[in-house]
Design a protein that fits this description.
The chain is an all-alpha fold and 46 residues long. The protein is 63% helix and 0% strand.
């Protein structure tokens, strides 16, 4: 199993939704702020 697969499985086990995982990976790859992970408080205030 590759490193990327282990990261994805670990994030799923931690309770992350697939959309959150995808945004996280896009943020790592692109650095675009729109994909940056947000804390629970920030998500509620959007």
């Amino acid at each position: 199993m590759g490193k990327a697969s282990r990261i994805i499985l670990g994030l799923r086990a931690a309770g992350w939704a697939n959309d959150e995982i995808l945004d996280f990976i896009l943020w790592i790859a692109t650095g675009e702020e729109q994909y940056r992970p947000r804390s629970s408080k920030q998500q509620l205030s959007r």
